[in-house]
Model the fold of this input.
Amino acid sequence: NPIILLVVIYLVTLRVRLLVDVGTLLAQRGQFAPAERFLSLALRLWPDPTGRLIVQVNQGVMRLQQNALDEAVATFKAVLEQGRQGYLGVKYESAAHYNLGVAFRRKKMEAQATAEFNAVLETWPASVYARNAQLALQQGRHKDKPSTQDKDTPV
Done:
């Protein structure tokens, strides 16, 4: 049956992305242990280089949600370094820069946060990450005013 064949092909080719989506959903609900299992499984299913980086970006976001800032910073830096090989699209590069900026801000490393937020604006100015980065930069300039806490942005 051609329909079954198409469904199987779809599931096989998008297996990593589907597992990432489930893991992200679980992490957003605060269910970090099952989310980590889904993301780890995605890494064990022979993802292509882009898929591997997408999983790692989402692992970094989950670390940020858990307030494991050092781990989040290390993850995002590694993703951006590996992404220089050309396997990371602008969406995920922007997400990595933005979330790295959030991690730096939470660590009170404002200069690094500003650099990352500016990198988002350079990478993909029309994205939701750029809008959030612009707001974060404005908050950084007006530190004497009360500001809302930066939110990590799931991808």
Q: What stands out?
A: The chain has a mean pLDDT of 92. The chain is about 75% helix and 0% strand. Helices lie at 2-13, 15-28, 32-44, 49-65, 69-83, 90-106, 110-123, 128-141. The radius of gyration is 17 Å.
